[in-house]
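Below is just one:
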Amino acid sequence: MLSDGEGHLIEGAYSSLLWWEGETLCAVPDDAPALPGITRRLLLEIAADDGVEVRYALPAPSELAGNEVWLVGSLHGIRAVSEWVGDGLPAGAPLRAPAWQQRLDQLQG
């Protein structure tokens, strides 16, 4: 994971960061120092079409503990984070990832 100078997570080396807080899909703001992700954009469009609330934030690693977190990219689609290495924080179960991956596959189909 790449972070800004204040320790907020921004993106993966080859992926964009998305996560869930309850029923809200969260993403790093568009003006963050991250590359624009095509898959990120598509998933945010799906969220808008489905009426899913989207919130933009710069998370500290501890703020993602226990939440469903995705690293998304054109090559692999949605990759759910299964564990955080080095800090002992729990990863959330990938409850939504399969259905959202199916929707993404239909768009790219």
Observations:
- The two ends are 29 Å apart (CA to CA).
- The mean pLDDT is 93.
- The chain has one domain: 2-108.
- The first strand starts at residue 2 and ends at 3.
